[in-house]
Design a protein that fits this description.
Layout lengths: L5 H11 L10 E2 L7 E5 L14 E4 L3 H5 L8 E6 L2 E7 L5 E10 L5 E8 L9 E8 L14 E2 L9 E8 L8 E4 L2 E8 L7 E7 H8 L9 E9 L7 E10 L1
Parallel strand pairs: 10-12
Antiparallel strand pairs: 1-9, 2-15, 3-6, 4-5, 5-15, 6-14, 7-13, 7-15, 8-10, 8-14, 11-12
Length: 247
């Protein structure tokens, strides 16, 4: 099994660092309390001027993630077979692009999305979905509303991290791997299923119970949903569309 603990180490170290002073106006993120939370849709625009409200980039500077004319951008808007999507291309550095949420896991457990996956070498595709959770670990202190003030600088608190990815073989679907402090769930796999669109849906509460059976599920919050990449010499990219949480 290929272990990739670098991303979680990076994210945890960034989370523990003190945030720098910012001139941006602080604002509470309003995500709504309805039966559906749209994470990523065609209206989300990543531009050089600014990040969309509620989104953060960690691991790389935001302008570098957007790339330049001299190389493939690690984050770009694309139109693949008529579907408007956000494409994540792996880099020589670990990075994550994520949106703040504040959703109870048992209230909105269903995560759905579309993706179009490129071919890759190795067991696990270097690009994957990432979901951050908080509250299920009994030792984790309770959070107040200040933890969910979005300043565009860093991820919200999390004590569990789940990666949902694409593997080299279709028969691995449903496998759950332990990668240090990250749990990696295989949603799909196989070279024969690359370069085409698939609609996916998972029950995060069921995966969470498998991954961390001793945690308190009723106390667990989904604090962010995003897309990430681990550093890899082998190229690989995934186009994502219509990511949402629902009950």
């Amino acid at each position: 099994m290929i272990r990739s603990p670098r991303l979680i180490i990076l994210l945890l170290s960034l989370f523990l660092l003190e945030g720098c002073v910012t001139q941006k106006k602080e604002q509470f993120l309003k995500i709504g309390t309805g039966s559906r939370i749209d994470i990523l849709g065609p209206r989300i625009q990543f531009t050089p001027a600014e990040l969309p409200a509620g989104w953060v980039v960690e691991g790389m500077d935001y302008p570098k993630v957007l790339g330049s004319q001299n190389r493939i951008a690690n984050l770009q808007h694309v139109n693949v077979n008529g579907i408007y999507a956000t494409h994540i291309q792996n880099s020589t550095k670990d990075f994550i692009v994520a949106r703040y949420t504040k959703a109870n896991l048992l209230v909105t457990p269903y995560l759905s999305w579309m993706w179009n996956v490129s071919e890759h070498k190795g067991q696990h595709h270097p690009v994957r979905l990432l979901v951050g959770f908080y509250g299920g670990v009994p030792q984790s202190p309770p959070l107040n509303n200040n933890a969910f003030i979005w300043r565009g600088e860093k991820l919200p608190p999390f004590d569990r991290l789940l990666a949902i990815g694409f593997d080299d073989m279709a028969l691995k679907r449903g496998n759950l791997y332990n990668m240090g402090q990250v749990k990696y769930y295989v949603q799909r796999g196989g070279i024969e299923q690359t370069h085409m669109w698939y609609r996916e849906a998972v029950d995060l509460s069921l995966i969470y119970q498998r991954a961390w059976p001793q945690d308190q599920l009723s106390n667990t919050m989904i604090t962010f949903v995003g897309m990430g990449s681990i550093s890899s010499a082998q190229g690989g990219g995934i186009s994502f569309a219509n990511i949402r949480l629902a009950r």
